[in-house]
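We modelled the chain as a single entity of 657 amino acids. Its sequence is:
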Amino acid sequence: MGLDEEMRNRLKRWLFTLLGKDPEGVVVCLRSGDDALSDAMVAEIRKLEPGRRVFEARADESYRTLRARFRKYRIGLMTTLIPVPAAALLLAPTKILAYNTRLERHHLTLSIASWLFLRGVPLDRIFLRPFSDETTRPEGHRVMEGRARRAGRKSVAVLTPYFPYPLSHGGAVRMFNLLRETAREFDVIVYAFTEGPVTDLGPVLEFCSRVYLVEKPRYREPRWSTVAPPEVGEYESPAMLALWRAREADVAQVEYTYLAAYGGDVLVEHDVTFDLYAQIRARKKTFSAWWDWWRWHRFEMRALRAFRSIVVMSEKDQALLGAGTVIENGVDLARFAPQPETKGRKLLFIGSFRHFPNIVAFRYLTEEILPLAPEVELTVVAGPDAWLHWTHYTGKVRPPGTILEFVADVRPLYHHANLVAVPTLESAGTNVKVLEAMAMGRAVISTSSGCAGLGAEHGVNIWIADTAAGFASGIAKLLEDTPLRAKIAAAGRTRVEKQFDWRAIGLRQRALLRELAGNAPEIRTAVPGDLAAIAAIQKASPEASQWTAESYLDHDCRVAVSHGRVVGFLIARATAPDEREILNIAVEPAVRRAGIGRILVETVLAEARGLAWFLEVRESNLAAINLYETLGFSAAGRRENYYHEPPEAAIVMRLFS
């Protein structure tokens, strides 16, 4: 010990002796009514300060009582649970170590951080997102090769905040399915952030040409202090930026608004984020809620102007932004197939806790709705790392009951459920889980927010309730009225079949990308001057129907034009108000296998949504059958001796667009 330090210690002991106090600082732990939290707080302090004397007192004791008890001691530290009692502020205003219900601790000072902590904001939302000593932005990347690129194909680069597999939440489901649909026509290169090791790449590499993986930055900045939303800062990565700028692709697509700063051609608004924060602002009515809304609104509206095209999930989102092409969420109708119910009163809730509105919905269901409902058997799927996200957003210990985290295949849970609950209070975009439940043939009870943008109708294909009492009453009614529940479930399946098949949605995705990539053939309505070219193409295509070309102008006749020349045609007609039929299609032999036939079909399908489409194809025309199947058509019948010259059976195919 140096001379100066020894002198300071002597002076300190002399001074506190004059004041009648013990010169060694002690720790005072104020216990609150929550004994479990108080026990944990005291145990941690004794571990952190093994050389100090630790005293315990009650937080509800008066300042006069505490002052008299500790008059002889110098308080070096006073710990207390939030809310901090006034007596503590009077007795040791600069020595308070406050604990929240997460048992996170913070030394109180005259600062914004302390004010936020006292208001219940978690430490990781004040300083650390996620916990680390400082902001770090990892360098380097991994490259995984997938399907070989094809000569002459256009390419699409897709930037995403996470790898789109496994299918553990709605965003991953959407990206996985639309990447697969995009790959039917384009080479796809994925640029994805990761938050841990990615070990299961196989399904994505089956249809993507290459995958770049970059570790997500560890972000440590005050959440409240930046004008840009903090989620934007979380993804500022020099490594990813260098890769993205060096991309070699015809179209660049960015998933989620908070990656918009990277730039590109297409911005996919999985939700209108400022709309979500507007709902929170309306409910909470606090300055922090307003601040989150304001900066998201500012950032998002500016971001939209930097892209050539915006994709939104619903007409509601399109109206909010005043722009955008609607490419809805969808469902894999072949995978999510209905099965008969089993008897019971089983209620299913699915919602990844990584998305905080699902935590709000879960608490609304379990704390406000179910206490009013008759006894039900509840199953909950909360997604990967559920309790990490739960603690982050609620500051509470894990709730009781059996709650599943990541489930690789949720279909068996739907099979055993009698009713699916979507009690969402705050939501933006559209909910994939509603579509999956409908596809599985299960009745859904939801708030208006939970099914927004899906065109669902109360009492027809869904049950909608916006109060806890109404939701509980709806659960009781649907569980007791089996015919009503079955009718709603069947109508829900019909609804998704007509509008939310990923294959049909993929048509619109590819049409948008094709337009942005350029050099695609022009598809337009035929005029009389095209008839000679149509007749010549038809004559050179013996597998096509050989009808009089002049009659085609009485129907919906489209031609594909490349370099000023008609190279293909398609004829369609309406057979009923909600049905269309493709009568004939042919492409000039010299330009076949360039995707012109696919583009002709996709164009008419994309323009007439929500309809049933039919066509006939020669049984021997395997190339055409394969094309139609990739577009979502399936065999629906067979007509013997339908074709002549040569005689042959026709396969009838059907698609809901």
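As a brief sanity check on the tokenised model: The longest helix spans residues 287-304. The chain has four domains: 3-120, 142-326, 346-499, 521-656.
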